[in-house]
């Protein structure tokens, strides 16, 4: 089966979060099961600079905001990819420094509506093999708002592939003013509350939900949550009305890249059968990165880790409120790697200055350090207010670093709270709190610290998580079944 993936990021070429990880690991899981896959990405400057050999497949011209825009379609083989990548090279829209979605000051690129409309128009053409390269997909799999319009462009084509639209995060709607809809000359018949219109503007995410043949999201619990007003971001009514085509399929993780017994970023390796010596060496190295002389007291104390985008979704305000309490009442050390909203970055930097021996903060994006925190920390904090799936809690489970999570979305689907019953039947793998408030988060951390002092039980908890299978086998099968419906 030929499947065309269309997305705005993919590890290791361009990644801002879990979306990038999934766009690497899911198509590979499908490829391993015999699917014939292509992945189309925008030709960002940072991406183009990593390509070695490219072949020009052809040129496609589509409508932009000020007239016709031309794009060169490149095909490339990347050493990390088992299948060809297609790149939409359109310098006016994508050849610029920095992040795919925002400029250096953290604001959305002002021409995002045009960038992702042009990208979608080109992808829709590729899906219909306008270049006549003889590769006609049966399914086009779209990811998040940046690709929502592809489903709309294809919807009224007589001979067309099936479209599947995956919502990785409903909170990012791809919302633009009506003036963009007009400037981009999008089809007038789309403009209705049954179409792409959302509160007087254009929603590219809504386009994906309305026009795709099937809609998925990345965990069963989130699939149910987004049909409620509390999590629906104003789209819960629409999502309830399309429940017949809405599916929750849990993400997997790449168990080759995220494997504590082979991880290239780790100073020491370990596995479920023998955790302690390797994990201690990782802890020591991690502490020494921040404290030139990590003494016995620092090694003895529980080390809490976080790797996160610094945005409201991730419960960052709860973390900021909890840290002073935890530092005052316990001997914990805390290490945080994150980047995102400037106000959060500043607050963490200030707090770290006040506690230089206890709180270690690295603001920025650092793939190796993310792995080292998963391995070197004792406990992983991920108190997201909502979490469509979440990959970090699965990475931490696999690295023997039990997570503390709020009971929502994919966190609820992957973390089993440690209590008397779940410890007795060895199903416990972490700590879950179910009230959205800082006191509940703190109570869960305190429970975790108590168990940490009981090495036998703690090791059992670590092993339960490490032995779980979070690979793609089940979920890739669900996607293949959906493609064939
Ligand atoms: P989300 O996609 O909502 O950010 P996920 O848990 O699904 O959350 O995925 C986050 C991914 O991004 C993980 O691979 C994590 O390691 C990575 N990540 C997040 N922030 C950073 C950072 N500052 N540096 C390195 N990796 C990060
Ligand atoms: C989004 C979500 C995250 C999910 C990831 C991959 O970034 O916030 O929960 O794991 O997409 O699907």
Strand content: 15-25%
As a percent range, the share of helical residues equals 25-40%
Strand order of the largest sheet: 3-4-5-2-1-6-7-11-12
Which parts are unreliable, with pLDDT below 50 for 5 consecutive residues or more?
none
Average of pLDDT: 97
Radius of gyration: 23 Å
**Each distinct ligand:** adenosine-5'-diphosphate, alpha-D-glucopyranose
Q: Any idea of the CATH class of the largest domain?
A: Alpha Beta
Number of domains: 2
Distance between the termini: 13 Å
For the secondary structure, the number of strands is 18
CATH architecture of the largest domain: 3-Layer(aba) Sandwich
Shape: globular
CATH fold assignment of the largest domain: Rossmann fold
Main pleated-sheet profile: 9 strands, mixed
The computed structural class is: alpha/beta
Number of helices: 20
Properties at a glance:
binds adenosine-5'-diphosphate; binds alpha-D-glucopyranose; nine-stranded mixed β-sheet; alpha/beta; Rossmann fold; single chain; six-stranded parallel β-sheet; 485 residues; 2 domains
């Amino acid at each position: 089966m030929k499947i065309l993936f269309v997305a705005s990021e993919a590890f290791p070429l361009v990644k801002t979060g879990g979306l990038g990880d999934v766009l690497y690991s899911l198509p590979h899981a499908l490829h391993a099961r015999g699917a014939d896959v292509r992945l189309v990405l925008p030709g960002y400057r940072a991406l183009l600079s990593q390509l070695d050999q490219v072949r020009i497949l052809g040129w496609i011209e589509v409508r932009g905001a000020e007239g016709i825009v031309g794009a060169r379609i490149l095909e490339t083989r990347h050493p990390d990819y088992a299948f060809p990548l297609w790149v939409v090279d359109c310098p006016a829209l994508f050849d610029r420094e920095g992040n795919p979605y925002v400029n250096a000051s953290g604001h959305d690129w002002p021409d995002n509506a045009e960038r992702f409309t042009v990208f979608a128009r080109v992808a829709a053409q590729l899906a219909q093999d306008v270049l006549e390269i003889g590769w006609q997909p049966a399914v086009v799999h779209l990811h998040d708002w940046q690709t929502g319009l592809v489903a709309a462009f294809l919807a009224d084509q007589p001979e067309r592939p099936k479209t599947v639209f995956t919502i990785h995060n409903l909170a990012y709607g791809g919302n633009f003013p009506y003036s963009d809809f007009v400037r981009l000359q999008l089809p007038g018949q789309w403009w209705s509350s049954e179409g792409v219109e959302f509160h007087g503007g254009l929603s590219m995410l809504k386009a994906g939900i309305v026009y795709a043949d099937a809609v998925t999201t990345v965990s069963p619990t989130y699939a149910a949550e987004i049909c409620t007003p509390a999590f629906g971001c104003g789209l819960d009514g629409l999502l309830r009305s399309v429940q017949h085509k809405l599916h929750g399929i849990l993400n997997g993780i790449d168990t080759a890249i995220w494997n504590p017994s082979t991880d290239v970023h780790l100073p020491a390796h370990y596995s479920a059968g023998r955790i302690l010596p390797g994990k201690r060496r990782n802890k020591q190295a991690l502490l020494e990165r921040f404290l030139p002389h990590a003494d016995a007291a620092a090694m003895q104390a529980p080390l809490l880790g976080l790797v996160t985008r610094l945005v409201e979704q991730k419960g960052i305000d709860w973390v900021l409120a909890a840290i002073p309490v935890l530092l005052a009442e316990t001997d914990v050390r805390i290490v945080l790697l994150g980047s995102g909203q400037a106000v959060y970055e500043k607050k963490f930097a200030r707090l770290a200055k006040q506690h230089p021996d206890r709180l270690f903060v690295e603001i920025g994006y650092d793939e190796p350090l993310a792995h080292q925190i998963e391995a070197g920390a004792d406990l992983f904090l991920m108190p997201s207010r909502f979490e469509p799936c979440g990959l970090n809690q699965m990475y931490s489970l696999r690295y023997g670093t039990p997570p503390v999570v709020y009971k929502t979305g994919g966190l609820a689907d992957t973390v089993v709270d440690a209590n008397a019953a779940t410890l007795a039947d060895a199903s416990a793998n972490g700590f879950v709190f179910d009230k959205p408030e800082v006191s509940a988060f703190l109570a869960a951390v305190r429970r975790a610290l108590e168990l940490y002092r009981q090495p036998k039980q703690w090791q059992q908890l670590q092993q339960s998580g490490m032995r779980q299978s979070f690979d793609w086998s089940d979920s890739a099968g669900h996607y293949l079944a959906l493609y064939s419906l």
